[in-house]
Design a protein that fits this description.
Chain B: Its main location: membrane. The complex is a heterodimer of chains A (251) and B (222). Chain A is an alpha/beta fold and 251 residues long. Chain A has a domain at 93-163. Chain A contains 9 helices and 10 strands. A 6-stranded mixed sheet of chain A has the order 6-7-8-3-9-10, with helices on both faces. In chain A, strands 2-1-4-5 form a 4-stranded antiparallel sheet, with helices on one face. In chain A, α3 (103-113) crosses α4 (119-132), α3 packs parallel to α5 and α4 (119-132) crosses α5. With 222 residues, chain B is mainly alpha-helical. Chain B has one domain: Orthogonal Bundle (MetI-like fold). Helix content of chain B is 78%, strand content 0%. Chain B starts with 7 loop residues before the first helix and ends in a 6-residue tail after the last helix. The chains are: A alpha/beta (251), B mainly alpha (222). Chains A and B meet through α2, β6 and α3 of A and α6 and α7 of B.
Chain lengths: 251, 222
Amino acid sequence: MDRSSMSDKTIEMIGVNKWFGPLHVLKDIDLTVARGEHIVLCGPSGSGKSTLIRCINHLEEIQKGAIFVNGTELGPQGNNADHIRRDVGMVFQQFNLFPHLTVLENCMLAQRRVRKTSVAEARDKAMRHLERVHIAEQAAKYPAQLSGGQQQRVAIARALCMDPQVMLFDEPTSALDPEMVKEVLDTMISLADDGITMICVTHEMGFARAVAHRVIFMDRGEIIESAAPEAFFSNPGHERTRAFLGQILNH
Amino acid sequence: MNYTFDFAPVFAAWPTLLEGIMGTLRMSSLSMVFGLGLGIIFMMMRMSGRPGLRTVAVGYIELIRNTPILVQVFFVFFGMPAIGIRLSGEQAAILAMTLNCAAYAAEIVRGGVQSIRPGQIEAGRALGMHTADIYRFIVFRPAIRAVYPALCSQFILLMLNSSLVSSVSAEELTYYAQTLDSQTFRSFEIYLTLGVIYLALSQVLSAVLSLIGRVYFSYPTK
């Protein structure tokens, strides 16, 4: 099924349901993300927000519903998953850099193995993206020699090396010491300014205000509210959203 | 005690002993390499999603780990000719030790693979890499690193156990020592020297393996 001709939707989730055993973690999720759109996804822990973005590149299987990325349907058993993953980059809470490879090699591996890029070309592109996240001077180091913030910027560069059309961020600053949060958020803001489509699971509401076109609040597996940041923060429509914002903003 | 110690015949036979040392090193190092390779295949079968493959691997590993290595050596050398597979002593020795080493290596390496955080594999998936590439380029090295000391002990044990293959006339150190014993009757001197040589070989092998480890696993971790 090809839908790319019909709209500029990058991601479309229709009636998505997911269970972990008896636990219903995603309930009838409908979500459409336009090309170039920046979405911030928030909600209490266990609300299903990480699970939702992990379904988009099939790190999690869905049991019901449909997901389209760039018009290609991701089947429930992961048909087209490899195809879709080429278009979707992901940044993890724990960075997940490969410890036995240098920063540069981390950025080259998938280019070489998936895109079959030549060594020279892969290196050039890796260095370009490392420069973009201001960490090119650390290219020869190993992940364990870098700070958390530096590692996360490398992880962003590694994902960008695959020329993704969409970037998924799964709580990218939650594992960082406070003084390193800003360098990562600044990197993400500059990506947003370049117009890449992104979905970001985060509680960094300053970031949401700065770059989000839409803020989505989830609770207990459901999308409760979805609004532009000004409306979302100043006048949330739902009681649960107000309670949540009260908890995370009141300190 | 009126026994007179005389090491002279033992030392005089040093070219024979040296040949034995070479035989021991040749057979055990080949068995380590083949055994590790085969062990990784069994490990992948053991961890695969297919129940058939898993059963075969588990059955194999249990069979090997619960029977004496000497019986395995005898089976390969004396038993297999019945089904038309006739091997020289050295070939039978290498095959039996490879099969033995593979079962232990499979379990050790499995422990290493299980120690890899799922996030590593997810990162590979998210980058669009295929499962085989993920294991080859992302999982393998840190997994082996995690269990390298255990793997080294197993290799040293294999080298020591290789003395058993003298019983099928594989020409290694113990085989030559026995020959020397039957010629000179200097049993005490011969087997004492033999023990010292094995001790030295263990030390050398241990040093070589740890050097390999230092080169191959030189990347820093927290």
